[in-house]
Amino acid sequence: MALQKSSDSSQAVGLGLRSVLLSSLQQSLETQNTPCTILEIAPENWCGMGGIKKQILDEFAAHFTWYCHGLSLSLGATTPLDFTFLASLKSFLEYYQVACYSEHLSFSGDEQGLLYDLLPLPFNSDTVLHVAQRIQTVQDYLQRRIAIENISYYMTLDNELTELEFVTAVLNEADCDLLLDVNNVYVNSVNHNDDAKNFIKSLPGHRIAYLHVAGHQKQLLTSFDLQHDDANASILIDTHHYPVPDPVWDLLSYTYASHGLKPTVLECDNGIPAWTDLCLELQQIQNIMESAYANKA
Fold it and tell me: What CA–CA distance (Å, rounded) separates 16 from 18?
């Protein structure tokens, strides 16, 4: 039987749930001072969970809207989809009345198992058809639409399409939604000399289910990393380690201006900051939302 929960606004602020944040979130509920209304979790880490952690999930379900962001479907792979996992996932999504389930537009495993990384796909028409078919299979099995996330990537393959053309083609062919990661757009724009605002403006806005924002870090390259003679060459790495920087905040504001307000989730995975600092970043999302709404009025 599914848990009952209250409804939530579509223009909501969310946080990626990590185990180290459980205590702070519980305290925020006790003081009725929660900084977000969405919690996003990786279902692979929680499916089948019992004991105290399940009790906490059940408690949170009465107060937060659940989003699930998957890690292991490997939509771009050629190996068969894992229907054992999908069966467990379907039950989890139904029990917790998960509002949105998303996965990465990448591949992350092969016949040997998970590679524990999100690897880019070749941007071509064959890949569009292959990935779209797998997305449709997942949607049919789960009996719900899913959202796919644009990933950050650090090498280009023998592509016949641009990233924008590829992502848009997959969305249309699969008839699925988009989890737009604003930080990934910015990281890719710097690393591959692309126009981040044009990428966002040109996306089909009606397919954007929600947004991600996160921090990243700058890494100097050596001649071993890339064939590059510039001693000061660097790339941005999507680490979710540092606070969201100003260019990403600016791009988030541009996204709202281009496509309207969307539920927005803050990701933080490495070096998770103090709870008060996280709350400030969540408040910054709210501030940008309010400013965008005021400008539309």
Answer: 6
Helix (H, G, I), strand (E, B), or coil: what is residue 72?
A: coil
Q: E strands of the chain, at which residues?
A: 13-16, 38-41, 65-69, 100-104, 107-110, 113-119, 147-149, 177-181, 208-213, 217-220, 234-237, 264-266
Lookup result for tokens 């504001």? 253
| CB-CB contact of 212 with 179 (8 Å) | yes
Does residue 139 have a pLDDT over 90?
yes
Q: Decide: helix, strand or coil at residue 280.
A: helix
CA distance 259 to 283: 21
How does pLDDT run across 158-171, given as a tens digit for each residue?
Answer: 899 999 999 999 99
What does DSSP assign to residue 245?
P
pLDDT in tens, 272-283: 889 999 999 999
Structure-block tokens of residue 219: 């890494």
Q: Work out whether the CA dihedral 201, 202, 206, 212 comes out positive or negative.
A: negative
For residues 152 and 186, the answer to whether their CB atoms sit within 8 Å is: no
CATH number belonging to the domain at 13-296, selected among 3.40.1160.10, 3.30.428.10, 3.20.20.150, 3.40.720.10:
3.20.20.150
Q: For the chain, which residues make up each domain, given as ranges?
A: 13-296
> Which tokens sit at 65?
């809207």
Describe the crossing of helices 182-191 and 246-259 by its angle, rounded to 10 degrees. Answer: 120
72, two tokens: 């292991």
